[in-house]
Amino acid sequence: MRVTVSGGEGFLGRYVNEAATEAGHEVIALSSRDFDLRNESEAHKAVCETRPDAIVHVAAKVGGIGLNVRAPATLFYENAIMGIHLLEAAREAGVPKFVTVGTACSYPAALPVPHAEVDLWEGYPAEATAPYALAKKMLLVMGQAYRVQYGMECEYAIPANLYGPHDHFDEMDGHVIPAVISKISRASRENTSVVVLWGDGTSTRDFLHARDAARGVVMLLEPDTPTYGKPVNFGSGREVSIRELAGMVAEIYRFRGTILWDKSRPSGQDRRLLDTSRAWLRLGWAAKTSLEDGLHETIDWYEQQIL
């Protein structure tokens, strides 16, 4: 198929482009330099000019807890409006297939692990990331409504916490893995004995290499059946605490200093681990990259960028 990937030059988008190309699709990667999807006319222009058989909507305004706390309205508005404009433009242009990439932040804050897709509506997301999470969650609702009313093949992927080369390494706004890597790398270079991380370190996450997530997202482009259209989790199957993660990164860097935990900073959802049985049963998908191998790969890439 001819596949348009919004956010195709971003972190996850790069991997989706690669996976889709390997699957035999013709890929058109959109970036914010090409089209501003927050603008309705620009979204329609993007669809009309690229003439896709399918759209994978990866573009997002996204970041770690720091950005979510500082700019919740921006994250809600931009993520909601980009998806709304692009899906409606796809409908008007007659694009039959639309895959939206959601977020594991959409799961209820107090939900036991592992999180199964049927549990999405069992409560409110964690307060710190709720505006972003709910904006993405509304795109699931929109896609399901468009499937019912217009017969569009709308799919919704829920990846776990993503990491890997090409991520956004920012100590304030980045996700947890790039933020931890950046801080410990800097401490190692500057021979600093103390690294301060947010929270108390007890929160857990399901860390998934972006390459594995992209492979699953592209699998959702496969031909539709009457049982499709339900959200699909993509996770590693492994629950890791932030404290354990920090220890793994410190070990790779041979950092022997002290890691202090700033408990005045938010930690987000207490526990997160995705149930991936639906991805396996429907698509035959399972994660391939271990966290240990993925961290080494990510750190090697990051160190090359800062040389």
Name the helicity range: 40-55%
CATH topology grouping of one domain: Rossmann fold
* Shape type: globular
- Return the average pLDDT rounded to an integer: 95
| H-E string | EHEHEHHEHEEHEEEHEEHEHH
SSE class: alpha/beta
The major sheet is characterized as: 6 strands, parallel
How many helices?
10
CATH architecture of one domain: 3-Layer(aba) Sandwich
Order the strands across the largest sheet as they lie in space. 2-1-3-4-5-10
What radius of gyration results from the CA coordinates?
19 Å
Low-confidence stretches: none
Say which CATH homologous superfamily of one domain is assigned. NAD(P)-binding Rossmann-like Domain
Q: Give the DSSP E fraction (strand runs of 2 or more residues).
A: 15-25%
Distance separating the two termini: 40 Å
User: Count the strands?
Assistant: 12
Query: Which CATH class of one domain applies here?
Result: Alpha Beta
Walk me through what this model shows:
The protein is of the alpha/beta class and 307 residues long. It has a domain of 210 residues: 3-Layer(aba) Sandwich (Rossmann fold), CATH 3.40.50. Helix content is 42%, strand content 16%. It contains ten helices and twelve strands. The strands form four sheets. A six-stranded parallel sheet has the order 2-1-3-4-5-10, with helices on both faces. The protein has a two-stranded parallel sheet with strand order 6-9. It has a two-stranded parallel ribbon with strand order 7-12. Strand 1, helix 1 and strand 2 form a beta-alpha-beta unit. It is globular.
